[in-house]
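#onboarding

Welcome to the new folks! Below is a worked example of what a typical request in this channel looks like: someone posts a single protein sequence, and someone else replies with the predicted structure as tokens. Don't worry about understanding the tokens yet, we'll cover that in week two.

Example request:
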Amino acid sequence: MRRVIILGSTGSIGTQAIEVIDKNPDKFQVVGLSAGSNAAALEAQRAHFSLAESKAVLGSAAATLLVEETEADVVLNGITGSIGLAPTLAALRTGKTLALANKESLIVGGQLVTKLAAPGQIVPVDSEHSAIAQCLRSGSNKEVKKLILTASGGPFRGFSKQQLAKVSPAEALAHPTWVMGQVVTTNSASLVNKGLELIEAHLLFDVAFDQIEVTVHPQSVIHSMVEFVDGSVIAQASPPDMKLPIALGLSWPDRLDQVSIPVDWSKSHSWQFEPLDESVFTAVALARQVGKAGKSYPAVYNAANEQAVLAFHSGAISFDQITELIARAVDAHQPDGELTLESLLAAEKWARDRTDAQIAKAC
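Example response:
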């Protein structure tokens, strides 16, 4: 039986993880929970699992202590945003398997995270990276030619730059496929999320940026693909359901029974693929540039985006200004010395302060 800590337990990833665990009580034992601010929901979860009050905590600092002080086999990091970095580092330092849904901590932490991780210690929970991890079991690393990340295209697929400038926060949150929180859903609409996933794929699988592509697949059934040197492409397909990658993150490398409903092959299906229009959705090309630059540039990209998303939903900026503000922060950034946790946090603060100042000027 695997002992599990769930960080971000009251969010979308956390609540779905609890559903998976409840269906497999012989395989998992929840030994710790953390949430951002929803104390009532956290208390209900604590009672559900009969945990001591000290094992159900609020806040990222408390989550870090929970990981450090609790005996567990798996930490599912479902926190949203770069505040998930400290718990990620704590999980790796203490030797626990890290089921990672908090992509920001890997992107911001970069080599700090990858150097700390033992081989196989990080198991991706993002549907795209889980798909790639599954596909990579079909061949050796030297046989991989490229990784192909699929993107739904979000609610604004096919829009022009002029159309993007006029979209509302409500429209940005109307994702055609997935139900997610405000930040992730907005990132999916701007394609910033796919930019973050591009960097994440490079860090997780040690594949060069020039060997990672993005294709738009509106149906979100093919979750990503791997092309091998002989021309074979292996794809992972399933109807959109985050329980599948969550379950794999908890049980990797084993699979659980009947987690998700598979594709119904008795029916006809049409799956569409099209190139990403990077002249309109500039976030992916910018992320590729940022990822190649490395150092603290990804931290700046992520922090500037988080501030811009907040400003968009408060009505301070237009949707198209989100990526403009990220680009300005990246262009102005000058990395300072050795890459450490302190330097990354300083870069993040600089990016947030600068972006907030830019937003204030625009108002």
